[in-house]
Amino acid sequence: MRRRVSDEEAVSPVIATVLLLAITVLLTSMVFIMFQGALSTTEKSPPQASTSVKGLENGFHVVRLSSLDQALDPAAVRYTLYNSSSGTVEQGYLVDNDVYGVVGAPVSFHDRDAGYSVTQGDYLVISSEDLGADEGGWRLQLVDERSGVVLVDVRLPAIVS
């Protein structure tokens, strides 16, 4: 007659402990890899720009961003037009309703690619006769307020008719 052997233990306690430890190490490694990108912060370099300025005979200055190494939010770019001899200041943001894409305003910003961003090739048109900036002595400054960097600080040349 045969005897039936009954073993109630499926896995020995040592093997179970080793398996649990291996699973714990794998899960910990996966969590670390997932959050590794969040733990390391990469600092973005500040934006850099260069411009070209042209005074037109019709009383306007055109300031074109001839190079800009990263796209910027127009809501974070502040313009300041100032005349150091008279103390006159005109300032605002490129996204202002009377600046962004407006034709005929004292200062207008034209987003060349219509992507709601400040990029290379975009330009400002300044109605210099309206501001009294056609005689020269005026400066335009563009500041990226997110990084605190002065992008542009250029002198507006006198307009010769």
List the helices and strands and how they pair.
Elements: H1 13-39, E1 49-55, E2 60-68, E3 77-83, E4 88-93, E5 107-110, E6 123-127, H2 128-131, E7 138-144, E8 149-156
Antiparallel strand pairs: 1-2, 2-6, 3-4, 3-7, 5-6, 7-8
Give an overview of the whole structure.
There is one protein chain. The protein is of the alpha+beta class and 161 residues long. It has 2 domains: 10-42; 49-156, Immunoglobulin-like, CATH 2.60.40. It has helices at 13-39, 128-131, and strands at residues 49-55, 60-68, 77-83, 88-93, 107-110, 123-127, 138-144, 149-156. A 4-stranded antiparallel sheet has the order 1-2-6-5. A hairpin with a 4-residue loop joins β3 and β4 (88-93).
Short key terms for the protein model shown above:
single chain, 161 residues, Immunoglobulin-like, 2 domains, four-stranded antiparallel sheet, 2 helices, 19% helix
